[in-house]
Amino acid sequence: MEFLETSGVRVPKLGFGTWRIFGAACSEAVQHALELGYRHLDTAQLYENEEEVGQGIAASGVSREQIFLVTKVRPEALAPADVLQTSEQSLRRLGTPYIDLLLMHWPRRDLPLGPTLEAMHSLRVSGKVRHIGVSNFPTQLVERAQSYGPVFCNQVEYHPYLSQSALLAQAIDGGPFLTAYCPLARGKVLKERVVRRIAESRGKSPAQVVLRWLVQQPQVVAIPKAASAAHRISNFGIFDFALTPAEMQMIHGLAKGHRLIDPPEGPDWD
Q1: Are strands 68-73 and 99-104 parallel, antiparallel or unpaired?
Q2: Rounded to two decimals, what is the model's pTM?
Q3: What are phi and psi of 187, to 5 degrees?
Q4: Active site residues
Q5: CA 14-16-18 angle, 5° bins
């Protein structure tokens, strides 16, 4: 496992995403991921699987202190009182006394940032949350969020088809690091000739090459979902090779502004 070290914290570069994994399949997947060596778990109130994630953690036997656990406040719960109430519910569902990283899942145009972030920071001060972050925030919104306190992470869609150059520059310049969700572009990028050619030359799968491309970048973490045990095993096999600068650049060259997740109520992107 490789780590991103920031603000005195070691964040595993590869996490396990749990979007659209439910019930026993979710708890079993989390347990299996932890047994394989994953130590970064990502869920959200909106995913409606926090309880199963907590069950998987408990069943794994891995100590809570070894796990970097992330959840997100649902967009409908961004009023300060709702932030506090739903975060307490998340703690109970996850079966944990603290959350490592609590994110604002999406910004809302009809609510000011300040009161929401102040409520989230109050959870940090109380010790129920260790770090505060955002998700789906463009650079200008990140700057506004930082005016209310430290922003640890910005979780965004990031894959070879979608350059995040502005957010990456912000991260490298002292802003929050990026967590890449939808890192394989829902499998579409795995068919690209350049990705397949690199994979064949390295004896790796196309998915492993794309995930390696992400985690090899400074200030970037990736959280692929893997509903199958085979994919969880495969995704974890990216730490025994490195891409050359030329290979990295070839994959960067696939960018074409292709955003897969862009709801009408979403922010104005960079």
Answers
A1: parallel
A2: 0.97
A3: 85, -10
A4: 47
A5: 155
* Token pair recorded at residue 207: 């998915």
Question: Cβ distance 138 to 167 under 8 Å?
Answer: yes
Centre a 10 Å sphere on the Cβ of residue 169 and count the other Cβ atoms it contains: 12
Which residues make Cβ contacts (< 8 Å) with residue 63, sequence separation at least 6?
none
pLDDT in tens, 12-48: 999 999 999 999 999 999 999 999 999 999 999 999 9
List the structure tokens of 85: 């109430």
Measured between alpha carbons, how far is residue 36 from residues 18, 43, 232 in Å? 16, 18, 8
Closest by CA to 17, choosing from 183, 230, 224, 187, is 224
Environment class of residue 61 by beta-carbon count within 10 Å: exposed (0-12), middle (13-18) or buried (19+)? exposed
Q: Where are the domains of the chain?
A: 3-187+213-240
CATH for 3-187+213-240 is 3.20.20.100
- Three-class DSSP category at 203: coil
